[in-house]
């Protein structure tokens, strides 16, 4: 039986939206949503929060997550990557707690629109495809092959003018990272230290099911989407 870990990454510092990871979102701290989702999915042996912040630790534990250790100063500054945080968590689990995992899922704390079914599908894809990682992607609504730029003279031109007359349905669809979670093979990740590689699989979701939250306007849009998706 595979051992599977959920890691919700939530450091205390947030410059654009103060205390972003525990700010109230439709009635409860935003971090409560991924915690509850991971616990209710029943696919994880441990659901932990990686944080350097004692208030985040307390709130996370109140909602059922584990915080077995605090994040180091090195992985709590503005220069630490998500991969740095995950490596620290996995190594600390092995070296201090004597526990190894086969698969892990990094879930971002500001993912209130995430659906449980996608975590389950991602794990299934990870195993069936023997992939390094699986993460949600969103299709660009317009063909990126017709992207425009402003030239030095201030006029608009196409990056790929050869696609001007090509039908939209004949252009290859393009996608972007939804920024919600990464489900990954632990052994491959520790070897490559990358969230996605040449052996990563995308799980397509709609643009209604995700929202980057970088400012207050994004926050309001995310709340509107949440109400549309989950209101009864």
Which key terms come to mind for this protein?
6 helices; 7-stranded mixed β-sheet; Spore Coat Polysaccharide Biosynthesis Protein SpsA, Chain A; EC 2.7.7.81; 232 residues; 11 strands; alpha/beta; PseF; Pseudaminic acid cytidylyltransferase; two-stranded antiparallel ribbon; transferase
Protein described:
- By secondary structure, the protein is α/β, with parallel strands linked by helices.
- The protein has a single domain, classed as Spore Coat Polysaccharide Biosynthesis Protein SpsA, Chain A (Alpha-Beta Complex), CATH 3.90.550.10.
- The protein is built from 6 helices and 11 strands.
- The strands form 3 sheets. Strands 1, 4, 5, 6, 9, 10 and 11 form a 7-stranded mixed sheet that branches.
- The longest helix is centred in the middle third of the chain and has 16 residues, at 82-97.
- The two termini are 37 Å apart.
- The model has no long low-confidence stretch (mean pLDDT 95).
- Please write the CATH class name: Alpha Beta
Q: Describe the sheet with the most strands.
A: 7 strands, mixed
Please estimate the helix content.
25-40%
Mass-distribution shape: globular
Number of domains: 1
Give the CATH superfamily: Spore Coat Polysaccharide Biosynthesis Protein SpsA, Chain A
Keywords: Nucleotidyltransferase, Transferase
Enzyme class: transferase
InterPro entries: CMP-NeuNAc_synthase, Cytidylyl_trans, Nucleotide-diphossugar_trans, PseF
Pfam family, one: CTP_transf_3
